[in-house]
């Protein structure tokens, strides 16, 4: 993100000339009831970003719209977004309609960036599902709808891109109703010479033209023919609204032929949308402006304010629950960092949703983060002064004096804040219950292009982990590889691009699966370590027998020395040497497991024997035994649970058989989805996050946990490390 330099020098995406209407934020919202936080969600390519641009332009927040191809949209300021021509991060786009401030949260539509999608839903009070009139509804969007339903998130649907030559509005509406349930249009498209130029409001009976060929949008009464064509849809809409009405007499009156006035229908519609039991549909075109007025009316009139939504649970720093929060500007300060970026001029830039209280400039606040140690985010508690409070418009930051409960702001120049942290009063610090973070399951191994680059790589990785909770960094002690666990290829590309942009020279290499070694056959050997080079020498001889144990039985050392040929104080030295060699491996450089080593003989020297000599002899003896035995490589096997749509079960199970997977069961979990349990070697899971997505049109999910190590088949040649 960038600050004042954007307004003076341009951003490389259109510059200040295009964005001059957005340089001033105006007075901040001062009442939660005048705020709407709406997440734009949907598949990549549905048109969320351009729809947001059109809404900003329609309300005067922008002088003109940017383009995806030109990299000039307000949402997509990250170099990776411009390069990939798709959103990869959450952005906040506030606009004002009358007295209502609407914070649009433009979320990424690609599955790799689901972390920012979940952050957007956390900061929002309603979700606007954007569906392409060209591409329709995909399985991932359907799964997201079901997820929002489980948490009671109010939602509506926008069928976008209705002006496209291949648009099929009616077919896509039918697909929405099939996949989402009882979603009902509030308006029907009006065509002029085959092109959609406006919408007929089913409740109002008026047509709003987009303004093609005129000075702007116009409104007129529907013609008789238009009313007749729209009557079936109008009747269905009215019945749907009445079915959700709290007035139980309304349906009887309607069926009896009474005319229900527009005010009553509109009020009941808005209540049902806020309650999350009614889901309106609108048609839009970001390019021609069709539907923008109607969509703004829906956002401000029907979607809930922050005061109408339950807030997350909070605890004190010791984990004790605190009474439920309310969206009160005068209440205790509680906010949450939903996204963090690092700017070369401004340092850490944190997007914060304020749940309670009012955050003001020059205030000392408590920053607390707990519960993400497995992702590299250590628990931390610190106090920091808020010196720069901003209202974000994408990458543009505008200073504001305060931010009230329900609103979203940006804090700059903080030292410790990370995504997921809680911002609260210094005198009464609190922690917001963490939201569910997706598990990164695709490993990418990297190293510095030269040894001198390793320090820069480690330093900059720390910064990226701090801002991206979906990234996990692992330094594997067995393979000695630095592994970045990512959400998929696109996520990995963004992470690597960000590292390279910081001047880090790095290379990617094949991921090595951490194997184990074991003895498949018994063997005996003699370890002779005798050296003489002036002064005291080194003398130790030990004889051992090695035999395999059952899988998982571990290591056992047995002493069968008779007659004191190896003094008792050297017995432990032999064991130390054997254990040290087991850690290094005896064949492919992986640790040795599940063996019994028996010390059966040896020799000592009255002067030259020592602890170090017998350790060396023990290690040598194990290596010599390995040369005589057959060494078996063992590979890790994970217990994997895969959740997929019922229609994809066959394809997924067939694919599992090609991965040496062993299926252990299937369970129906509702929502037309099935959970498949299987045991799969880890080597077959390196790219499974990508391949499962391809098999299930982006809707498949899986989780894994280590189960055991099994022998590597003879026809599989794993990557190894040096011993």
TrEMBL record:
GO terms for biological process: ribosome disassembly. Keywords: Elongation factor, GTP-binding, Nucleotide-binding, Protein biosynthesis. CDD domains: EFG_mtEFG1_IV, EFG_mtEFG_C. SMART domains: EFG_C, EFG_IV. SUPFAM superfamilies: EF-G C-terminal domain-like, P-loop containing nucleoside triphosphate hydrolases, Ribosomal protein S5 domain 2-like, Translation proteins. Residues 1-34 are annotated as: Disordered. Gene3D superfamilies: 3.30.230.10, 3.30.70.240, Elongation Factor G (Translational Gtpase), domain 3, P-loop containing nucleotide triphosphate hydrolases, Translation factors. Residues 33-307 form the Tr-type G domain. InterPro entries: EFG_II, EFG_III/V, EFG_IV, EFG_V, EFG_V-like, EFTu-like_2, P-loop_NTPase, Ribosomal_Su5_D2-typ_SF. GO terms for molecular function: GTP binding; GTPase activity; translation elongation factor activity. This is Elongation factor G-like protein EF-G2. It comes from Cryobacterium zongtaii. The lineage of its organism: Bacteria, Bacillati, Actinomycetota, Actinomycetes, Micrococcales.
